Amino acid sequence: MVRGKGRGRGKDDLGRARRPSARVRPREVYVFTEGEVTEPGYIDFVRIHGELKDPSRPFEIHFENSSAPSKRRKPLPLVEDAVACLIRVESRARRDGLDEEKDWNWPQVWCLFDRDEHKDIATAFARARKAGVNIAYSHPCFELWRLLHYQNYTSGFGGACGSAAALLKKQPGFAATYGGRGGSVSTEQAKYVKPKQFAAATPDQNRFEQAKQYAARLGGARVGPNPALWDPYTDVHAFVEDGLGVFKY
Description:
Blueprint (H helix, E strand, L loop, with lengths): L10 H13 L3 E7 L4 H12 L1 E2 L6 E5 L11 H21 L12 E7 L6 H11 L2 E6 L3 H5 L13 H9 L17 H4 L16 H14 L12 E2 L1 H8 L2 E3 L1
Parallel strand pairs: 1-3, 1-4, 4-5
Antiparallel strand pairs: 2-7, 5-6
């Protein structure tokens, strides 16, 4: 609401009048994903089906590396590009009158990447933390987060994403979400997220909360400071909650 409507203002008053409109705009969330299909598909699902903890605090998703080549989708280049983005969007936010300490909709920049066989995980984490870029990380890969919507899982994968993907495809009802009468789904098909894979069995069930609790237990069991050794691990729920403000889908 604009206060003092109809009253005469000088230039300084006009400048201050723009601040409230900036503060009620959606939070801009800039996302860099390692995957070209699965992670963007999941984020779109959350954007469409997620329920906000505070409906007065909406968000806007900006996929910043949709057309990036594969060499820029590894953890360290991903973070480097995200840092450059963060500098740009924070500068714009300040010009628009937002305050990093006071405004809930201060822009955020997130990187979503996996352990896979990357050798620069620790360096990517260190650079992101220093710059203020957020990370949602999965070991061995994003399929673990999807798997936790079906079951609790605590055993290590030895860094093999293929094992996590294979276990996901075996979950009851998973293949059926792709249609057809077959009881199996190809590796390529399984990259595409389907809404029914996150559907609650009952109206009062919160599949996100369930997966989050399972993931939190994995986080509590991690050993040492090196994220390359956290097997298994995922904190995608932090992106959903802290970045988007979603608590349920």
